[in-house]
Specification:
The protein is globular and about 40 Å long. Helices cover about 40% and strands about 20% of the residues. The chain has five helices and five strands. By secondary structure, it is an alpha/beta fold. It starts with a strand and ends with a helix. α1 (about 15-25) runs parallel beside α5. A five-stranded parallel sheet has the order 2-1-3-4-5, sandwiched between helices. The protein has one domain: Rossmann fold.
Length: about 130
């Protein structure tokens, strides 16, 4: 059973997000990956998120570029911890993604790592799992 879900806003985010998958693989932690857009198909994202706790997922890592607020959209729809990975795919080199991920309103927390630093997102997920007894 996967303990971590890695969600990418688009297929273009795969090279950056692969770094998170690599860390989880090396740690022996089961995970799954999906490409789901909060903007293009919010219904599919909602359906997927509703299933995660029942299936044993304890942490979500969400990576998106441009000003996509994937991490925030996910955090507003689940009680699971969400770690956002801003990706440098825009002309602003990820600053737009960073700000849209880190500037969430009270009650909608998204732990946010540095731009393109998916490996740190996975390391944080491992620490969350350790504290949660996973």
């Amino acid at each position: 059973m996967p303990q971590v879900a890695i969600i990418k806003g688009s297929k273009n985010d795969a090279p950056v997000m692969e770094k998170a998958a690599q860390v989880l693989r090396e740690a022996g932690v089961e995970f799954e990956e999906r490409v789901l857009s909060a903007h293009r198909d919010p219904e599919a994202l909602d359906a997927y998120l509703k299933e995660l706790p029942r299936r044993g997922v304890k942490v979500v890592i969400a990576g998106a570029g441009w000003a996509a607020h994937l991490g925030g959209a996910i955090a507003s729809r689940t009680e699971l911890p969400v770690i956002g990975v801003p990706i440098s795919s825009s002309p602003l080199n990820g600053m737009d993604a960073l700000l849209s991920t880190v500037q969430m309103p009270p009650g909608v927390p998204v732990a946010t790592v540095a731009i393109d630093c998916a490996a740190n997102a996975a390391h944080l997920a491992l620490r969350i799992l350790k504290v949660a007894g996973g």
